[in-house]
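FORM 12-B: Structure-to-Sequence Request
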C-alpha cells in the first residue's frame, strides 16, 4: 500500500531513453487526447523499445488506460502522432495494427477448447494447420499449460485462463502486447505469482509488453521501465530503481511505496553536498544527486522508511541527520516492525525496523531520535504540494 507522510510542517519524454540499444517499437510524439473540454492525456512524448517490459503506472483517471487505448487504436489522438515501427498509425484501425490487447476480462470463447481458443487468430488468418499446431503447442509450453489443450475455459482457474488469454494474444507474434490491468480480478497470492509468470513469459517470447496498472508492486516487480502518470501528465520515466530511489517530483516520491517527505529550504550547495534547513530549525546535509540546487529554493527531503533507524541502532554509513520523536505505534509485520513516530512539531514519520534495529527496546510513548545515513536521504527537486499530490499534511 502506498502512503505519504509529511515531515516538519509541511521528466519524461524522449530524454528518458529506452533501455540499452534496442530499436524503438512504439513512439508517442506529443500525443494529446481530449474528450470535449476535458484533457485525458497531455502531451505524452516517449519511446518504447523492442523486447521491453514497459509499464504505465498511476492512480485512476491519470490517463494511462486512455494512452494504451490510443496505442491499440481504440481511441484516436486529438493531436500528436503514434508510430509503430516508424510508421504513423495514429488513425489506423485496431485490426490493422500489429499489436494485441489483453484485458481484465479475458474474453475466452467458452464453447471452444483451450487449443482452439489459442489457434483462433491463426486460423482466421488462414495459416496452414501444421503451422497452427506447432505455434499453439509452443505457446502452451511457454505458458506451462500443454496438458490443458483439450479443456474448456470454464474448467480452468483464473490464473490459468489468464495464461491462455496471453497465449492467444501472443500466437500471432505481434510487435507489442498491450495489457490493461489484467491481474486485477485475481486474489492477492495468485496475482503475486502471476507477476513473476508474466515477466518470465515476456522474457521467453521477447515481445514488447506494455502494461497498465495502478499497483506499484506490480510495476516494480515486472518492469524494465515505468512511466508514472498523474492528471494526464507523464511525471517521470525510468527504471524501477530510479523511480523508487530518485523520484523527480514530489508526486512520484509519494506515490511509489511509502515515503517520509519533509519540506526543506536549500541553505547552500558545495561540491556534492547540499545543506538544507528544516521547518523545525534543524540543518541536514544531503547528497546533491547530481543536480544543482539554488540557495533559498524550496525542495523536498525524502527518507524511505527502511532508511530510518532509532538512535541506539547502528547507522549503515556516515550519519546524515536526526529528528527527536515520540513513538505512537508499533506493528509487527513479519520481516519488519512498522514504527510510527511523531515529531515535536506534530508531524508523522514511519520507519521499518528489522531485528538489527532492536525494535524491542521501543514502546508506545518512548522518546527516541530517528536517524538516517547521509546516503539514505534524497532531495526531490520541487516543493511538496499536498493538494496536487493527493496527500494531507499531519496536524
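FORM 12-B RESPONSE
SEQUENCE OUT:
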Amino acid at each position: 500500500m502506498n502512503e505519504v507522510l509529511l515531515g516538519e510542517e509541511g521528466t519524461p519524454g524522449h530524454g528518458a531513453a529506452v533501455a540499452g540499444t534496442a530499436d524503438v517499437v512504439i513512439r508517442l510524439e506529443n500525443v494529446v487526447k481530449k474528450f470535449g473540454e476535458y484533457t485525458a492525456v497531455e502531451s505524452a512524448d516517449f519511446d518504447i523499445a523492442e523486447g521491453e517490459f514497459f509499464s504505465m503506472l498511476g492512480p485512476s483517471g491519470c490517463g494511462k488506460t486512455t494512452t494504451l487505448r490510443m496505442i491499440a487504436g481504440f481511441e484516436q489522438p486529438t493531436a500528436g502522432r503514434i508510430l509503430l515501427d516508424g510508421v504513423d498509425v495514429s488513425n489506423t484501425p485496431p485490426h490493422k495494427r500489429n499489436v494485441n490487447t489483453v484485458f481484465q476480462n479475458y474474453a475466452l470463447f467458452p464453447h471452444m477448447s483451450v487449443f482452439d481458443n489459442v489457434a483462433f487468430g491463426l486460423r482466421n488468418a488462414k495459416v496452414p494447420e501444421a503451422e497452427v499446431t506447432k505455434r499453439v503447442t509452443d505457446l502452451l509450453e511457454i505458458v506451462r499449460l500443454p496438458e490443458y489443450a483439450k479443456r474448456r475455459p470454464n474448467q480452468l482457474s483464473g490464473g490459468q485462463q489468464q495464461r491462455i488469454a496471453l497465449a492467444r494474444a501472443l500466437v500471432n507474434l505481434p510487435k507489442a502486447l498491450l495489457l490493461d490491468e489484467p491481474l486485477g480480478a485475481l486474489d492477492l497470492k495468485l496475482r503475486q505469482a502471476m507477476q513473476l509468470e508474466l515477466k518470465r513469459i515476456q522474457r521467453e517470447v521477447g515481445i514488447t509488453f506494455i502494461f497498465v496498472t495502478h499497483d506499484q508492486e506490480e510495476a516494480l516487480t515486472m518492469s524494465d521501465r515505468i512511466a508514472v502518470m498523474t492528471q494526464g501528465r507523464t511525471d517521470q520515466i525510468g527504471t524501477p530503481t530510479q523511480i523508487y530511489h530518485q523520484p523527480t517530483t514530489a508526486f512520484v516520491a509519494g506515490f511509489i511505496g511509502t515515503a517520509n517527505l519533509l519540506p526543506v529550504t536549500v541553505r547552500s550547495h558545495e561540491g556534492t553536498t547540499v545543506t538544507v534547513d528544516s521547518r523545525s530549525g534543524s540543518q541536514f546535509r544531503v547528497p546533491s544527486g547530481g543536480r544543482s540546487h539554488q540557495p533559498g529554493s524550496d525542495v523536498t527531503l525524502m527518507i524511505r522508511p527502511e532508511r530510518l533507524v532509532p538512535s541506539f541502532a547502528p547507522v549503515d554509513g556516515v550519519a546524515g541527520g536526526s529528528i527527536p520523536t515520540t513513538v505512537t505505534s508499533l506493528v509487527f509485520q513479519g520481516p519488519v516492525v512498522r514504527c510510527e513516530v511523531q515529531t515535536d512539531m506534530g508531524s508523522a514519520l514511519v520507519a521499518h525496523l528489522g531485528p538489527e534495529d532492536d525494535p524491542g527496546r521501543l514502546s508506545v510513548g518512548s522518546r527516541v531520535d530517528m536517524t538516517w545515513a547521509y546516503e539514505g536521504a534524497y532531495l526531490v527537486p520541487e516543493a511538496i504540494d499536498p493538494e496536487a499530490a493527493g496527500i494531507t499534511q499531519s496536524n
